[in-house]
Model the fold of this input.
Amino acid sequence: ELAAMLASIDEGVGALVAKLEELGIAGNTLLVFTSDNGGETGVTTNGYLRGGKSQLYEGGIRVPMIACWPGRAKAGAVCETPVSSIDLYPGLLDAAGLAAPRGHTVDGVSFLPLLARPQARLKRDALYWHYPLEKPHFLGGRSAGALRKEDWKLIEFFDTDSAELYNLKADPGEHNDLAAAEPARVKAMRQDLAAWRSAVIPAPSSPARK
Done:
């Protein structure tokens, strides 16, 4: 089934590109291919990455992203700068030469600079994840949040009020938990994560509004 799905996607992308070329607009079209989460363990493999779908380890959140824009994106280039799905909206606005509506809050940042300069850095301090669950996910995920700052990544587990810390540059497979060795960093990153949640997560609706 997985092979059939991949073949179907490949055929669909091929048909889309062929139509763009037929219409003469392929050179003025930005194509982006990505995924919403990592592969489900048990039926596929995420290589050296730990975990998979439903988890905040890299196997669950690190996915491919491929961009093609003739004359604008550097062909064959590999970019190591992290990009999130929240960057698609501002990036596509940027590609179209448009600005977000006035007063409209945009969570991500434009990924467009990376197409021409794959070694560039995006203008943000950190990436955040929030994945609250009432009970463990059937695929193994736990109620948790995560924060990545440069090479450092913290995962905070809500069910046990505990945290794990990894240096993704030295340990992309997340095998060496450094939380015990870096208590000050853990404390600071947990505070940053809590501040972000307080700033962006809306309060529960009152019964009168339901």
In short: DSSP finds five helices and six strands in the chain. The first strand starts at residue 31 and ends at 34.
